[in-house]
Amino acid sequence: MGIRFILMVNKQGQTRLAQYYEYLTLEQRRALEGEIVRKCLARNEQQCSFVEHRNYKIVYRRYASLFFLVGVDNDENELAILEFIHLIVETMDQHFGNVCELDIMFHLEKAHFMLEEMVMNGHMVETSKSNILAPIQLMEKAV
Amino acid sequence: MANPSIMDTLFQRSLEDLIKGIRLQSPDSSTPTSSFLCKSMEEIRREIKSTDPHTKSIALLKLTYLNSIYGFDMSWAAFHVVEVISYPQFPLKKIGYSAATASFHDGTDVLLLLTNQLRKDLSSSNGFEVSLALQCLSVIGTTDLCRDLCNEIFTLLSSTRIYVKKKAIAVVLRVFRKYQDAVGVCFKRLVDNLESSEPQGMSAVVGVFCELTLRDPEGYLPLAPEFYRILIDCKNNWVLIKVLKIFAKLAPLEPRLAKKIVDPICEIMRRTMAKSLMFECIWTVVSSLSEYESAVKLAVVKARELLVDDDPNLKYLGLKALSSLAFNHPWAVVENKDAVISSLSDADPNIKLASLRIVMSMVSEDNVVEISRVLINYSLKSDPDFCNEILRSILTTCSRNYYEVVFDFDWYISLLGEMSRIPYCQRGEEIENQLIDIGMRVKDARQELVRVARDLLIDPALLGNPFLHRILSAAAWVSGEYVELSKSPFELMEALLQPRTSLLPPLIRAVYIQSAFKVLVYCLHSYLLQKEATASSFAADGNTPWIENSAIQGPEGSDLATSELDREFNPRDFSPSFENNGHSISKLSTHKSMVNLLNLTEMALGPLMESHEVEIQERVRNILGVKELVKQEILDHSAQKEENSEKKESDASKIIELIYHSFSEELGPVSASAQARITVPNGLVLKDNLAELEIICGDIELPVSTSFSLGTLHSREKEVLSLDDAASNEDSEPSTESTSLLSEHYKRHKLYYLLERKMMPFPLIIHLPMKVRFRIIRSMISMIL
User: Do A77 and B241 lie within an 8 Å CB cutoff?
Assistant: First the structure.
C-alpha cells in the first residue's frame, strides 16, 4: 500500500493535519495517533528517524515546532520517505512563504490539497515542486 | 443550550473565526468536551441544514476541520456532503469533496447517490473538477462505484490533459483492487502509458506497476524490457527507486533478467550521490541478486560506508542491509564485526536492537561461548530494557531446536545461573523452564545443575527479588529431584527452610517445602541404611565404628571437612549399595545431625501447619507427619545404640524406604497428545452433567468422621450438606431419601437435638413447594447445630 498515513503534530502532541490513505474509525485514529506521537516525541536528536510500529514503519522528522510523521509499509525505502517529507516542507514553504505551524492551521485545506497533488492512493504521483504548485496557483487565481 | 441570539444567526462564523476562537480558549479547550467546541458543533448543526449553498458549505468546512483535528464524528452529515458536492460552484464543490474524502467509507449508505455526480464531474471539461472527482474516488471508491465509473476512467487514461491523466493512472490501482474486471478493460491503456515515457506521468505509472508487481510478480514479467529501458534512461531518482523495487521482485523469477540488470545497478550504486538510491540498490542486490559475488562485494563496501557514518539513520540502514546478508554471506558480517559490536552500545535503542539481531544470527557451535560472554558484558552495562532483550535473545537462540548450538551443558547451566544474578534480569520464566528442561533431558548435566541450584538457594538476598522467584522455584525443584547428586543435603535443607523464604509467593514456597521433603526422606533413608550397615558390621566385627563416627563428627556444618576423614577411617564398613552414590552423604548422617535436621524441620515448618494456603498446608502436614513417625524411632535409638545386636526393621524405616523409592523413580515428560490417545473404555461416560450426581449419591451415607485432619464439626457439616443437596432436588423421589436421611440422623444424634420435636409428618412435606421444603429442612438442621 505504500504510504498509509501522514500526520503533522506539534511538540505538545496536538494534531495539526491528518491524512489517512486507508480507512480507520475515529477511535482507531485517536488511539493510533496517541501511541505513535508518544513514541516519536520521546526520542531525541541522536536517534534515528525510523520507528517500527506493529506491522509497519513510521518515518518522522522534526521541523521547528512541527513533527512530520509518515506511516509506511515495511518494504518502503526509508530514506526516500525522508526526502519526501522534505519535499512537502519545501513545497509548502514555497507556497506560503516561510511556512510555519500557523499557516497550516489556518489554511488546512490548502495543505490537504497540496498533499493530494503529491500522493494519491498511498503512492507518490508527483515529485516536482513546480508541477505540484501550478494547479494550486491556477485554482486560486480562478476562484 | 441557551437560545441562539440574533447575532449568532445573522452572522455565520467562518473557519478562520472558528480557529481563532479555539486558539483564544484556554489550553484545555482542545478536548472534545470543552464547551466552546460543543457550542460550535451546535452552530454547525444548525447552519448545515440551511438551503443557502454558501452557509451550508462553510458549515461543512468547519465540520470537516473539527472531524479531522479533534475527532468529532461527522457521519450524520453524509447527506449534506452529497448535496454540497452537487453545487456547481467550484470552491463549494471542493469543500464537499474534501469532506467526503475525510469521512466516507465502505459503510456509508449515501455513497450510491454520488455515482452520477462523480460521473458528471469526471467527464467535465474543467480539469480541476475532474481531478477533484478522481482524488475523492481514490480514497472512497467502493466496488459499485468503481464498476459504474470504470468507463470514465478508461477514457481519462488516454486524455490529452496530462494533469488529469496522471491522476487517472493513480486511481486505476484502487479500481483494480475493488473491481477486478476493470483490469481487462484498462490494462492496455496503462501499458501504453508506460511505454510513452512522458516524464510527468512516469512517477504515477511506475508507482502503479510497483504495487501491482508486489502482489503478483509473474504477470508483469513480460513488461521487463520496458522497465529496463526506464532503468537505463530515466534520471529521476524517485522513479528509479520504484523500478528497482520492481526488479527486486522480478529478478528471482528469471535468471537472464538478473544477469542483465546486475551491471546497470552496480553502475548506479557507484555513480549516484543520493543515499536513498544507493540504499535501494544495496537492498536490491542483497535481497534478490545475492548470487552475484561482485555485486554483493560492492554492496557490502557501500553498506560499510553507511555503517561507519555518524548519522544514526544511515547506521541503522547499514545494519539492516547487513542483517539480511548474514544468512547467506556470513563473511560480510565478520568483516564488519567491530562496527556491529560497537553499535551494541549506541545511544539509539533501534540501532542496538538491529546490531543485536545481527550478532544473534551469527551464533554457531564454535562461537556461542565467546558471543555469550561479550553479550553478557554488554548487558551489565546497559539499561534494563536492552539488558532483558539481550538475555531473551541468548535464551531463545541457545534453546532453539532443543539446544542445537550448546555442546557443553555444564557451561550453559553456569551461564543460566550467572544470568539469574544480573540485577535487571526479568526473564525468570524462561530460565526456569530451561533449567528444568535441561535437567530432565541431559543426565550428565544434573551435577552442575545441582551445584548451580545450591548457589542460588543459599543466597538469602535473592529471595527478596520477585523476578527471581521462578528461578528459585526451579532451583528448589532441581535440588529436591536430584538430591543424591548434592554435596551437602544438610546445607540444602537449611537453605530451603531459611526464614526468608516467607517472602516467596505461596505456590513457590510449596515447591520449596516439597523439595525439603524429598531431601529429608533422602537423608533419613541413607541414615537408616547406614545404621543397618553399621549395626550389621557392628554385629560382625564387634567394634563400634558408628560411635566413633559420631565422636568424630563435629558440628553438622562442617560436613565436607569430616567426610574426607571418614573415608580414610572406615572405607569398608559401608554396604556397597550406597558407596556407588559417589558422595559421602551417607557418612555424614550421624545421629546428632539427624536429630538436628528433624528439629530444624519442626521449627521452620511448625508455624505453617495452620497456613491458609492450601498447597502449603498440605505439604507441611505431609512432611511433619513423616517426621512424627520417624522421630520416635530416631530418639529411641539414642537410648538403644549400644544394645542393638539384632536389628528389627521398624515401621519407620519401611515407610521411609517406600517414600524414598517412590521419589527416586523418574517421571518423564508426558506428550501433549497422550490424553487423546487413550481410548475411552466402554461404559465410561465422560460428558455427563455432574449435577445429576446428586441423584446417584444422595443416598450414600457419609461416614461419621474418623479422619485425622478434620474435626467433628466438619463431618457434621458434610452430612448436613448432603441433606441440603438432597433436599434441593426436583424429583419427589429424592425427597423421600432426604427424609430418610434426616430420620437416620435423628436416630443417631438424638442426643444433640435441642427440642424434643415431633417428627413432622414428613410425607406432608413432599407436597409443599420446593423452596419451602428446603427452608423447613434447613431450619431443622440449624436446630441441630
Answer: yes
For residue A120, list chain B residues with Cβ-Cβ distance below 8 A. 134-135, 138, 167, 170-171, 204
DSSP code per residue over B481-534: HTGGG-S-HHHHHHHHH-GGGGGS-HHHHHHHHHHHHHHHHHHHHHHHHHHHHH
Is the CB of B276 less than 8 angstroms away from the CB of A16?
Answer: no
AA identity, residue B710: L
Q: Which residues pair with A120 in a beta bridge?
A: A123
pLDDT digits (tens, 9 = 90+) for B19-52: 887 777 766 545 555 788 888 888 888 888 888 8
Indicate the domain borders of chain B: 374-486, 519-664, 685-769
A-to-B residue pairs, Cβ atoms closer than 8 angstroms = 128
Nearest to A26 among B73, B135, B238 (CB): B73
> What is d(CA B25, CA A136) in angstroms, rounded to the nearest whole number?
32
Residue of A nearest to B172 (CA): A121
Comparing CB atoms, the residue among A50, A106, A138 nearest residue B313 is A50
Report d(CA B123, CA B149) in Å as an integer.
10
CA distance B220 to A16: 40
Contacts of A52-61 with CB under 8 Å at 24 or more apart are A52/B350, A56/A4, A59/A85, A60/A85, A61/A85, A61/A86
pLDDT tens column, B263-272:
888 888 888 8
Q: How far is it, in rounded angstroms, from Cα B111 to Cα B147?
A: 13
- In order of B100, B125, B162, the CA distances from B95 in angstroms are 9, 20, 24
CA distance B284 to B389: 30
3-state secondary structure of B643: coil
Chain A residues with CB-CB distance to B107 below 8 A: none
Smallest CA–CA distance from A52 into chain B, residue: B350
Cell numbers of B378, please?
554488554
CB–CB of B114/B102 below 8 Å? Answer: no
Q: In whole angstroms, give the CA distance from residue B206 to residue B214.
A: 12
Buried b / exposed e over B197-233, threshold 16 CB at 10 Å, is eeeebbbbbbbbbbbbbbeebeebeebbebbbebbee
pTM of the complete model: 0.71
Length of chain B: 785
The better pLDDT of the pair B166, B559 is held by B166
- Pairwise CB contact (< 8 Å): A2 & B105: no
Q: Which residues contact A19 (CB under 8 A, 6 or more apart)?
A: A5, A6, A7, A112, A115, A119
Q: Determine the Cα–Cα distance for residues B69 and B30; give it in Å rounded to an integer.
A: 9
CA distances from B314 to A79, B318, B329, B421 (A): 9, 6, 21, 36
What is the pLDDT at residue B26? Answer: 62
SS3 state at A70 = strand
CA distance A123 to chain B (A): 6
Residue closest to B117 by CA, chosen among B82, B92, B163: B82
Q: How far apart are CA B776 and CA B761, in angstroms?
A: 12
